[in-house]
Amino acid sequence: MFPRTPPRSAPRVPPRVPPPVPRRVPPRALALIALLGSCFAATQALRQPAIAGDGPVNIGIDIGKPGQNAIPIGLPYPKGGAPQAQDFWNVVKRDLELTGFFTVLDPNVSLEPADAGVEPGQFDFAAWRPSGASALAKTVTTANGSNLDTQVWIYDVNGATKLDAKSFSAGSTSTRALAHRVANAILFAVTGRKGFFDTRFAFSGRFGENKEIYLCDADGYGRRSITKNGSINLNPRWSPTGSAIAYTGYAAGNPDLYVADLGKGQIRRVAAKAGINTGGAFAPGGATLALTQTVGSDSEIFTIDAASGAAIGRLTASPGIDVSPSWSPDGSKIAFVSERSGGPQIYVMNKDGSGAHRVSFQGPNNTSPAWSPLGDRIAFVGRDGNFDIFTVKTDGTGVVRVTQGQGDNEDPSWSPDGDYIAFSSTRSGAGHIWIASADGDFQAQITSGGGGYSNPSWSPHLSW
Questions:
Q1: Among 104, 114, 379, 427, which one is most buried in terms of CB atoms within 10 A?
Q2: 413: number of CA atoms within 13 Å, CB side?
Q3: What gap in Å lies between CA 229 and CA 54, rounded to an integer?
């Protein structure tokens, strides 16, 4: 049995030959060019002229881990009178809470007068101390023609010290993107940690009759489709640069591997052998894909050229299935699932297939490995009643249980800095994307509304 820890799902191993999905081959036209064009335009509109002053410093604030000793932070409503100010404030507040590092105080608890300013000397720190605030982030949002300009001033309340100050500008329709930038700045100034609100999730979603590949922002908003082929599309995985997504699709009636080039708005099929072509995972350099393909009645792991689909090599040749490759951050090793010991377990092998050894030992069913970008741990899904998320050191020791007793929790994917794990969970009834700190102490639901979210893949930090 797994070690039991206070509460906080291994997807079933894919069948050796998935049931066919007979469909006509639909047109492969996508709306990606328009989508990416708008993303690029919004990015170009975002700019960050620095406010003259000190760089970030950290003094006087006790920084713990997400979900432990959350920092009380004052976040007064923005000055400046921009019509988007309330929406902007709502996004910043939720972003800070989603990190697990902050408790955002009610702005009305402050004793400062309404005309208090945002810069040093324009307000009194004593007005915030009775509220228990340890940190303070004051903002100004101003409509400037077609742009929204924002300043954020970040303070240590007890030390009466400015930690940092930044200014940002965005198109007036990019309020959420601007708020994400501000939230990242606050997090870094107070904790020294890089925020994740410049990332996105790719996922498989059912919001109609079929499952398509979608993107959403790191806070769960801004959902938009990558595929629109009227078929079944699964298991998206980001390229290291965030410019492409590999996924398995049934558009041609067989589970084939595709790569969506997000910059060009194009999709190409890179693996289409009879049987399955699934679990495509980019190597750290982005030039190679590891995937699972059918060999007779078995499933084995291969590598192919990510651009052309040309075969590079076969990595496994054992009885029982070998599936779900996940690269180590240095590209030297691959974690995967194998039945060679009887039931599905997590193994690690060298990138050429040599030296395979088992690293999961608790319980009969462990799947879906995801290698931490820090290189020290592998997340996976184990079945102990329900499906739950665990992590293990790369030598097979030090198992940590991340979820327990809260529906089925599957499809782990690490944040780019290794602080959090995203996963799909049914704990709220339908499938949604959740995140947890790496130790499971902090957990938060990212998506909302109708269900249908599965296979989340967390992007690298993005510039668009």
A1: 379
A2: 26
A3: 52
Convert the pLDDT of each residue in 406-447 to its tens digit.
999 999 999 999 999 999 999 998 899 999 999 999 999 999
Token code pair at residue 228: 């629109």
Cα-Cα-Cα-Cα dihedral sign, residues 104, 109, 113, 114: positive
The pair of structure tokens assigned to 351 is 């990138």
Element (H, E) at 259: strand 256-261
Beta strands in 283-371 (DSSP E): 288-295, 298-305, 311-314, 322-327, 333-338, 345-350, 357-358, 366-371
Examine the domain organization and report whether 160 and 105 are in the same domain. yes
CA distance to 174, 225, 378, 450, 455, per residue, from 413 (Å): 27, 20, 10, 22, 9
CA distances to 110, 120, 138, 223 from 75, rounded to whole Å, are: 10, 16, 6, 27
113 and 234 fall within a common domain: no
H helical segments located in 270-375: none
| Single-letter code of the amino acid located at 234 | L
β-strand 366-371 against 357-358: which pairing, if any?
unpaired
Whether the pTM exceeds 0.85: the reply is yes
Residues 350 and 376 in one domain: yes
Same domain for 183 and 299, yes or no, is no
